[in-house]
Write a structure and sequence with these properties.
Blueprint: H1 2-15, H2 17-53, E1 59-64, H3 82-91, E2 95-110, E3 113-122, H4 125-129, E4 134-137, H5 142-147, E5 151-154, H6 156-163, E6 172-175, E7 178-186, E8 201-205, H7 206-214, E9 221-226, H8 232-246, E10 257-261, H9 262-305, H10 307-315, H11 320-357, H12 365-391, H13 395-400
Parallel strand pairs: 3-8, 5-7
Antiparallel strand pairs: 1-9, 1-10, 2-3, 2-6, 2-9, 4-7, 5-8, 6-7
Length: 402
């Protein structure tokens, strides 16, 4: 019986192809929108996670001010000093590296070329904390860090813009009025989750930065690379205690600094993108309901057109349940066909968007299966009323229908 109902449904759908296509359109658009939105959102979330992971593994980031990672950050808080770095290095255990960093935007010059970049003053622990490998050259030596030598390490963007195919090792750059010799070239990391180019950087010893560029001993950021993930909470608490003592924060007083776990930042950003994906998917799902109403409308029209046929079937012995099943299967086939087309269209749109936005193409098997099942359920739910109406027709009145 089910097979016969399926054959009748396919015949009915193919008998009016244009009407069937227009009926499917709502389901197709709804399913395609859901698939595309969720897939693009998941790809964006993976991109954010990958970009933030490039900042270093098992990382704590300390900065002056209480809300430095979002709106309301306090830039007037006292900067860190070298004594704070020394106290952390003496007091913390289970860490791979502690890197003090000060930064400033500057224009660098090499020959006839010049380029705007960010100059970071730090030491060799910075490359360990940031998990940054060298394409060529080396990090700073202890002697260069202590004496503030005029040496620098450059990112891939600086190498490409200023030196092209040439080897930059041993070449000299001018940062404002300061000249330095290139001793290392970093491997590329690409854009960060904030959209900034991580390779557009020049790194010099911290003491050279303080003496020749900033003119102060301020340190704006401390990167603390923890040895094991399980020890992050312990190291974070200890770092906060040491910095409170160093900065003379009395008990009961709020910290004038923050120590953040990068995994917390990653979780906050990925939860935001996940929430936006869910909202966009929910909005797109509304069009599925519109498609369901379209299915109900066309099935009511079909029942009206085929009233005499239904009357004949009932008159020669067809049961109400058989008529009900026939029209339910027809609505189910329509909606399911729309779901299949919508899934294919949604994946195609998501693939093109992922290519254009340079994000991972991340289709979710569960969302695809759910969309497929939901489209079928839409057909059953919205096809039930027309099917019941057809099954309850009076055979005598149906035979009189013209």
């Amino acid at each position: 019986m089910l097979w016969e109902a399926l054959k009748l449904a396919i015949q009915s759908v193919s008998r009016n192809p244009l009407r069937s296509v227009l009926t499917l359109l709502g389901i197709v658009i709804g399913v395609a929108a859901v698939i595309a939105m969720v897939t693009i959102g998941d790809g964006t979330t993976r991109k954010v996670e990958a970009d933030l992971s490039k900042l270093g593994s098992n990382m704590l980031v300390a900065r002056p001010g209480r809300n430095v990672f979002g709106p309301g950050g306090n830039s007037d808080s006292r900067a860190f000093k070298e004594r704070d770095v020394a106290a952390l290095r003496n007091g913390l255990s289970h860490v791979r590296a502690i890197a003090p960093v000060s930064s400033r935007a500057a224009t660098i010059v090499s020959g006839a070329q010049n380029y705007s970049t960010t100059v970071n003053g730090t030491d060799s622990d910075f490359f360990i904390a940031q998990d940054w490998d060298f394409e060529s050259g080396r990090p700073f030596s202890e002697g260069e860090v202590r004496s503030g030598s005029a040496v620098c390490v450059i990112g891939q963007t600086i190498k490409t813009v200023l030196f092209g195919p040439l080897d930059p090792l041993g070449e000299r750059l001018r940062i404002g009025n300061v000249s330095c010799s290139v001793v290392g070239v970093l491997t590329g990391k690409g854009q960060s989750a904030m959209g900034t180019d991580q390779d557009n950087t020049v790194i010099i010893p911290l003491r050279a930065f303080q003496r020749r560029i900033s003119g102060s001993t301020n340190i704006s950021t401390l990167y603390i690379a923890v040895a094991e993930k399980e020890q992050i909470t312990e190291v974070q608490a200890m770092a906060e205690r040491i910095l409170r003592e160093q900065r003379r924060v009395v008990p009961g007083q709020d910290d004038d600094f923050s120590v953040r776990d990068m995994t917390q930042i990653i979780s906050a950003m990925t939860s935001t993108t996940s929430l936006m994906t869910a909202l966009l998917g929910a909005v797109a799902a509304v069009s599925l309901l519109v498609g369901g109403i379209g299915v109900m409308n066309i099935m009511l029209v079909s029942v009206t057109e085929r009233t005499r046929e239904i009357g004949i079937r009932l008159a020669i012995g067809a049961l109400e349940g058989q008529v009900l099943l026939q029209f339910l299967v027809e609505a189910f086939v329509l909606a399911l066909l729309g779901g299949v087309i919508g899934i294919a269209l949604g994946l195609a749109i998501a693939g093109l968007a992922a290519y254009g936005m340079q994000i991972p193409f991340a289709p979710s098997a569960s969302i695809i299966a759910l969309s497929f099942a939901f489209s079928g359920a839409i057909g059953v739910v919205f096809g039930f009323f027309p099917a019941r109406r057809a099954a309850r027709l009076d055979p005598i009145e149906a035979l009189r229908h013209e």
